[in-house]
């Protein structure tokens, strides 16, 4: 049985969204970050960083969301959700997965770290302007890469869209403007996917929200 350790409105939703798209049974273990459960000894034994998500599957433990999506897609999925390893489609999929983490998410996480995640003595508010500039630059590259396609690999939804879409939703929650018309249409296609809505509902239920 797959177990996802997480908390609502975090990167955990990337994993539960993927599992809902796959139709794979899983259990959701709430780690109440607001109550300090991320720093508890039992959870640190699973994920020494104290962050969410974490995933356990038959003794395997993963602690990076992009790796979880790739693992789940390879084990339980089929193309186009997870393209075949070694194919050109998989190469492009993995490239966009890396882009989402290294370019699109990175400036948002910089903002998050310097607003609330880091200890106050290590926060540098002056970095916000640069981070916002970096995010807008990444949006431009994403818009060019998406072009007129419905999804990042063309007309078929893939796991890369989950990671990119979640990061775009994160940007909107940080009140960052996303002005490219093709990205706005892309966001609208992603936000109402039944698997995404189901994953959010299950996470909120687990947290009593």
From TrEMBL:
UniProt keyword annotations, A-Z: Transferase
Pfam families linked to this entry: GST_C, GST_N
Record-annotated GST N-terminal domain positions: 1-80
Transmembrane segments annotated in the record for this chain: none
PANTHER family on file: GLUTATHIONE S-TRANSFERASE FAMILY PROTEIN, GLUTATHIONE S-TRANSFERASE-RELATED
Protein name: Glutathione S-transferase family protein
GO molecular function, one term: transferase activity
Gene3D superfamilies for the chain: 1.20.1050.10, Glutaredoxin
Domain GST C-terminal: 86-209
Protein family membership: Belongs to the GST superfamily.
């Amino acid at each position: 049985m797959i177990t996802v350790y997480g908390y609502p409105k975090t990167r955990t939703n990337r994993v539960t969204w993927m599992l809902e798209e796959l139709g794979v049974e899983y259990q959701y273990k709430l780690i109440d970050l607001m109550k300090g459960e991320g720093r508890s000894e039992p959870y640190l034994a699973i994920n020494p960083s104290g962050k969410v998500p974490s995933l356990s599957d038959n003794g395997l433990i993963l602690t990076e969301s992009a790796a979880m999506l790739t693992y789940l897609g390879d084990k339980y999925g089929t193309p186009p959700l997870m393209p075949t390893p070694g194919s050109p489609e998989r190469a492009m999929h993995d490239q966009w997965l890396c882009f989402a983490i290294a370019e699109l998410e990175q400036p948002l996480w910089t903002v998050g770290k310097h607003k609330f995640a880091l200890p106050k003595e290590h926060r540098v508010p002056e970095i916000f302007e640069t981070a916002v500039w970096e995010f807008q630059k990444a949006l431009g590259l994403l818009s060019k890469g998406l072009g007129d396609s419905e999804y990042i690999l063309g007309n078929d939804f893939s796991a890369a869209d989950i990671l990119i879409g979640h990061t775009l939703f994160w940007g909107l929650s940080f009140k960052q403007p996303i002005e490219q018309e093709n990205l706005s249409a892309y966001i609208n296609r992603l936000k109402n996917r039944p698997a995404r809505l189901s994953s959010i509902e299950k996470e909120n239920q687990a947290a009593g929200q």
